[in-house]
Amino acid sequence: MKIDPNKSIFIQLADYIRFDIYSGKRKPNSRLESIRDMAIILEVNPNTIKRVYQVLEEEGLIYCHSTLGYFVCPSEEVIQKNKQKYISDRLKEFLTLLNNCNITKAEITKIIGELYGDN
Amino acid sequence: MEIIKDTITFMYPNKLVFENVEIKINQGEIYLLIGRNGCGKSTLLRLLAKIEPYQFKLHLVNEKEISYMPSDLVYYSYMKIIDLLKFYDDTHHNFSLDFALKYLDEFKLNPKQKIKKLSMGEQKILNYLICLSKNAKLYLIDEPFPYVDLLNDEIFRNMIINRYDETKTFIIATHQINEFEKLASYCLLIKGYKTIECLSTDEIRSTVSLSVEDYFKEVMRYVKGD
C-alpha cells in the first residue's frame, strides 16, 4: 500500500482494509495482521492501526477475539450490507457535488457511459 | 495520561531559550520535535533528560527509565562494538543485549569492528542502537538521521515500532520530517522562545491536506526569528 503523506493516514488505512474485505481479497473469518505487524509493514503509528481496527469493529466489519486478535466478519451478508452503505454514502457525497455543479441526470449518465467505454 | 505538564523558562548565560513555555507530553505517543536551527530542540531534550540543571516534573516515569540519545555522542575509539555493548549490558539493568545483537546483524555491522574504524553513519547507528536497546519508558532521540542511508532508515522505524507499547513515549528531534511523520502521532513545533505548539499529525493532514513537512515549511516561512 502506498500512503499519501498529504491525506489523513487514518482514513487511508481504514479504506485500504475496507476495500480488501469488500473486494473479497480478505475472506470472511480470515485473520488480520496484529496491530504491531501491520504497523511494521506499513511503517505507521501503532495507535493509528488500533483506532482503525476499533472503528471497523464498531461498524461490524471485523471482530476481536479475546486472545487470537482481529478477524474479518464471518457473515457475507453483513459485509455486503456494509459495502452497499459505504458505496451509497460516497455516492451521496458525489451527488451533492454534481448538484453544486448543476449537472442533470442525463448528462451524468452519458459521462458514466463514456467512462465505462460504452458507445 | 500526561507524563509531563509544565511551564518552562530556561536560559543559557547569554541566550534566552524558553520563556514561560507550556509543554505537555502524553504517555504512549510518538512525538516529532521540529523547529528551525538553533530554536532549542536539543536544549529541550537535554532538559527532559535532566542533563541541564532544570527540574522537570515527571509523572509515571522514573528518572532511570529515560533513554537519551544525544546528537553527538563519542565513545572510546579503541573499543570494539561488542565490548561496548557488553559494557552497557553490565552497567545498565534495563539494557537488552539480545535486542542489540539482533539489530546489529540487521544493520550488517560486525561486532568485532573497532569503533574508530566506523564511518559517521555507522557511529550514528551505534548510538541509536544503544538508545533503543534500553527498555525505557521515555525515549529522547536527538537527530538520528544524518549520514544514515535509506535502507537503514527503514530499520530505524522498525525498531521504534518494535519497542513501542502504550506505556512508552518517544520524542524525536529531527530535520528529516518526512522520514518519521507517518510514525508520529503528534508534532511539537517550536515556533519561538515563547511557543511550542503541539499538533496532531493526522489532523494537519486532514484539515489542511498537507504533509507535516509541507505544513512546517508553510508555517515557519512567516514566523519571525528572535
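qc> The two ends of chain A are 34 Å apart (CA to CA).
qc> done
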